[in-house]
User: Fold Glutaminase from Mycolicibacterium parafortuitum.
Amino acid sequence: MAQLVQRYLDRIRAEHTGVTDGALADYIPELARVDPDGYGLSLSSVDGFVYESGDTAVEFTIQSVSKPFTYALALAHLGADAVDAVIGVEPSGEAFNEISVDHLTKTPKNPMINAGAIAAVSLIPADSPGERFAMIQDFYSAFAGRRLELDEEVYASEKATGSRNRAIGYMLQSFGVLDDDPDEVLDVYYRQCSLRVTSTDLAIMGATLARGGTCPTTGTRVADASVIKRTLSVMVTCGMYDAAGDWVSAVGMPAKSGVGGGIVAVLPGQLGIGTYSPLLDAKGHSVRGVRLCRSLSEQLGLHFLTVSRDSRATLRAVYEPAEGIRVYEAHGDLLFSGAEQLVRTAERERADSDVAILDVTGVDDIDDAARALLSDMSQALCADGKQGFLVDPDGTVVGARADLEAIRFPDVGSALTAAHEWLAQHQRIPG
Ligand code: GLN
Assistant:
């Protein structure tokens, strides 16, 4: 049953391959030169298992996807009160590069628009711009679980053409938001935007956020849960700028996009998603990336208001009542991430057993994505020359699928009897 989840992701990605709307960012030549067809999707579970589909090894510049991470670094060093005194948390409803501050406080409205992001850079405590950038680079790299490098050419171009950001920097200085030389702060901002990532890096960075600040691939604790909670909150309300409302209703995951073509989306407690496609809409978001996230959310049931409980607890027990038979006992709410974890566990262990019994007696609720995945799992087992049985007294997984009735049992006892019979028929009687 190799790669069930992989096939889902490949299929959902393929739905948007034909989309060629949008335009490459062209404010600097380096971004206008990239291959417009580049298209990658990566998904990392909170335990660090990464699925990749398409151009997931293509490097691009992180651009504004950097903003939540620098904000998190500022929070980690200064605490929320000190950061709040300089940067608000209200959605601005404006474009990312609007030259604006809050009317009353004269501070940037939030850290996801350029004004707030530049202010966040200035808060990182360091003695020099070089040291400040090194802290940022180290911090992002810890989120990604690998060293992220600077794209020197993009950096040089950003710096040469950044009039709008300079206007924002000097405006912030005039309002007393920036204590440091605006050009020095901007230099670090341009460098942070020019760090190179892949969609897989973004997925792992997202999974680090999803896991409350621990990188799933290295196990390193990068930031406190309180810092992550605040960062994710601002991503919900402000991450997609003036499209934030639309995004929250259609996709329902804290997210951040960048004009390099990347989007990071996070399902807290469950997974991180990274997408790459450099053709952008009028608001600066990747056209295919937005559509892809929307489809993933719809088809896998990833909206954060649908997914209310932590699905890591889904698999309550795995036991071997007899040689060649393994029982997987699921409970609670079974949603995409929980089903993914279950399928992956069964897949990893499939060499060790001939019959897998999935006991869903204790499952309270299941969504369509999980139901589809688990019914496919039973079929995939058969295709592998193994057998899958379901203990599903209430028809939770089987639902209306008549083809699964033959493998459905009311209790573990009867499933075990069937499993022994199957082993005997297939001459796989232990001993
Ligand atoms: N470097 C870009 C800028 O500051 C990043 C913008 C973005 O990705 N939205 O204008």
